[in-house]
Design goal:
The chain is of the alpha/beta class. The protein has a single domain, classed as Glutaredoxin (3-Layer(aba) Sandwich). It contains seven helices and seven strands. A seven-stranded mixed β-sheet has the order 2-1-5-4-3-6-7. A hairpin with a 4-residue loop joins strand 1 and strand 2. The protein is globular, with a radius of gyration of 18 Å.
Length: 167
Amino acid sequence: MNRVYSTLALLFLLAIAAAAQAQNLPATTGETLSGHRIVLAQAVGGHPALLAACFSKDAGPSCDQWVKQARTDPALAGVTVFEVAMLGRAPGFIRGMIESGMRKGLTGAEQDQLVILTVDEPLWRSYFGVTTDKDPWVVLIDSGGRILWHGHGAAANLEPLLKAALK
């Protein structure tokens, strides 16, 4: 009987440890490229989402490619797609020019799903597991906010792995 209680206690402690290690989406307030305030943690709550984040200008084009592919991929139908641009390290007087350049060629709906963040960069770097600024960082989360898949790099190289995670 003691062995059963010991096993149950061990399983309970392991579950608590796993829950403590799970990373929650930071509750940072940002702004969409169209000018609306947004908290991604609230915006994606209750449904699956794919977040593609860039932490430098170098990662921007690859991040855009991730978003374009994800929005047109039938395997990701029903998954909300957001692009996240971390501009906290860009000087304030340059941010407007950066955002203006980002708006070019985007529809209003696409601008609503491109989120500009200027604070809490260490939290976001930790959430995505960033080790290099040159790549886009991507996470697929389920409706409960749990990370189902994460990766970084070019969409063409990683999209098969993402699709495998959906199965």
